Automatic annotation (TrEMBL):
InterPro entries: Redoxin, Thioredoxin-like_sf, Thioredoxin_domain. Pfam families: Redoxin. The chain crosses the membrane at residues 6-26. It comes from the Bacteria. This is AhpC/TSA family protein. Keywords: Membrane, Transmembrane, Transmembrane helix. Gene3D superfamilies: Glutaredoxin. GO terms for molecular function: oxidoreductase activity. Residues 49-182 form the Thioredoxin domain.
Length: 182
């Protein structure tokens, strides 16, 4: 009986140590991913239009057939998310994008999701994004991607009612932090 108790105690200790190590590895991977994006785009250089810049003219058509232009972003805050089919982290960021939209749509915030179609098919992203948001799919250097100078994915922009970039970031929360400051 004492052997069984000792074995269970040792096994419990090993499982707890494994759990602690797993949490440490996950935290390190998240840090590594953020550092990798920062290194890829340069220390102080954002991978697109800088905050304070007015969005240049663009025209695109959503998957529902609605025309979207830079002028159509006038008047309300708009959360714009850029996702790529070749990006491993993009699918993971979709839930936080949707949550941000749902949480602020009552306040009048609009959304625009731009999916850049690469080598992989867009099906996983299309299934994850809800039908009720404006969704633009672009292959290659599309009009919206060029206008925002998007070069890293996922990347999010908070566009003000005057069509200027008010916040941007790799995480949706980085964009929305600008709302708390104003």
């Amino acid at each position: 009986m004492t052997i069984v108790v000792a074995a269970v105690s040792v096994l419990t200790l090993l499982v707890l140590m494994n759990l602690i190590l797993t949490f440490g590895v996950v935290r390190k991977l998240r840090t590594y991913e953020a550092e990798r994006v920062a290194a890829r785009r340069g220390a102080d250089e954002a991978p697109g239009l800088p905050v304070g810049t007015e969005i240049p003219a663009f025209t695109a058509t959503t998957t529902a057939g609605v025309e979207v232009t830079a002028e159509s972003l006038d008047g309300k805050l708009t959360l714009v998310g850029f996702f790529s089919t070749d990006c491993g982290a993009c699918l993971q960021r979709v839930p936080s994008f949707i949550e941000a939209i749902r949480g602020r749509s009552a306040e009048g915030m609009r959304s625009l999701a731009v999916v850049i179609v690469g080598d992989k098919g867009p099906e996983p992203l299309l299934e994850a994004l809800p039908d009720d948001i404006h969704l633009v799919m672009e292959k290659g250097a599309g009009d919206v991607e060029v206008a925002f100078q998007a070069s890293a994915f996922p990347w999010f922009y908070l566009v003000g009612p005057d069509r200027t970039i008010r916040g941007d970031g790799y995480e949706v929360e980085q964009c929305l932090n600008e709302l708390a400051r104003t």
